[in-house]
Amino acid sequence: MTSLIIVSVLAVAVLYLGLFKYKTALLPVSVTGLLAAAAMAAMDWDLEKMYFSEMMLFDNYAVAFSILLILTTLLIFGLSRNYFEKISNNVAEYYALMLFALAGGVVMVSFHNLAMLFIGIEILSISLYVLAGIRRKDPASNEASLKYFLMGAFATGFLLFGTALIYGATGSFNLAAIASSGAFESALFRAGVLLMMVGLSFKVSVAPFHTWTPDVYEGSPGLIAMFMATVVKTAGFAAFLRLFLMAFAEASAFWAITVAILCILTLFAGNITAVFQDRFKRLLAWSSVSHAGYLLLAILAVGFSASSAVLVYTIAYSLASVAAFGIMILVSRARGNDHLDSFNGLARTNPFLAFTLTLAVCSLAGIPLTAGFFGKFYVFKVALAQGYTWLVVLAVINAMIGIYYYFKVIIAMYMKENANAVAIQLNPGFRLVLSIVVFLIFLFGIFPGLIANIL
Amino acid sequence: MLLQSSASSYLPILIQGIMALAFVGITMVITHLVGPKRRTIDKLTPFESGISSVGNARSPFSIKYFLVAILFVLFDVEVIFMYPWAVNFRELGGKGMIEMFVFMGMLLLGFFYVIRKGALDWEK
Description:
Chain A is mainly α and 455 residues long. Chain A has helices spanning 2-19, 26-43, 60-78, 84-87, 91-110, 114-132, 139-170, 175-179, 187-203, 212-219, 222-246, 252-275, 280-300, 306-335, 346-349, 351-365, 371-385, 389-415, 428-446, 449-452; strands spanning 49-51, 56-58. The longest helix of chain A has 32 residues, at 139-170. The two termini of chain A are 19 Å apart. Chain B is mainly α and 124 residues long. Helices cover 65% and strands 0% of the residues of chain B. Chain B has 5 helices and no strands. Chain B has helices at residues 11-34, 41-44, 63-80, 82-87, 89-116.
């Protein structure tokens, strides 16, 4: 709870620092504040405290995901020096909006009441609508913002309608009260569950509600797309799982088949479309859709160490995405665009970048010795334990399709030549963040026990 | 008994709604049938608060109207939260007072930000 207050106050403080033109202080203050917030979140471990008449519950699940969200934001801030200054004059607003979005994310992983779920999603989404369109003069950025806003508002309508129906069926917004209400058979409750599923599916870009993802990722500035792919997706899935785990677990016989179908649709839509992309940012956007499919597998297996599997997967996915998007930003800035051909010859000019990107896409593809392998491993394991063998087989086929398109960029970097390529200059922030990511991907890929037994 | 509500207890509201709609409908129909019809140019122009209309309504206007309007809506809606607080002021006690002050403080911070950013400077 203290961490949530720190993040919120930090956002206001950063906004005011920008107002009084202390631009050099923005980054140090944000980083210090986030470190303090992560430390305060860690202090809540094992306390299981309820706040505001049972509106929020800071159990270990909430603490673990809060820390993950805060640390991912920290990594993104590490890449942001001199980034936003090039886009606009209102630099403080970027940091403040990202911190507000993070506050929304923390609410989303710690809610114990449907009203708080809604408030968390709205705090996160409204900040993102602005962030997506923050390059005001760029039509693509405007399109991204408008598209995200219109579809997001529509999805929120579904979510609220579902919330209302569940309140009608059970007489409560409280997750524990809903779980013990015994109204799982009523049509009102079932319609509510499905409508809430639609709303949440949109937020985490699950097919068939994923169509906004590539356009919004492509139109947004690179770091914002990175934020969407990591923090927003993690918060969205943590909220999705928390809701279905704490409130709807008893009714799983009813909604499991729907989630299974969404999972198959998402896997095939994401992976097959990604094969045909020739721009790296769009490829990453479609791959982020496909990762939503793998994470849905874990939601199918609620109650059976699903939260642990989702935590491992989101850690691995966030780390790899930070590296992949970061290098995409560097390459597209140095070579003019993010076309796969722009990566030609990167191994010769920048061996460190080429190695990091190789590691990142291997982790996204789930190659052993990287964190991503164990992410997929645990997700498949919980799904198999629940008897979804056919679904896991389909997911493995999709993972193989994934390897094909992820390796296109490795082939471009190592096997294709670009005669007039010059080395890309790295600033210290990029060097530090990418080194940390490389270290952690290897660490969690070799010692998965460090993160697998947290929850 | 008072809290029990069923479909039949909404019957008076339904009757009132029908009466209101019927009154509007009947008066409109009767004036059309009974009243004399004298069409003059002045009568056929669109009515705009008594002023003769000028040009098309779909012309560009300053974006500042939009900004002021949206800020008005924002602060207007926030005031709604004051009403339930005021009604339950005694029951909420000192804690409620502090919570409301925190809320108003955040609102004032936002208001100060808006002013400092020059969003309300009409002349700029």
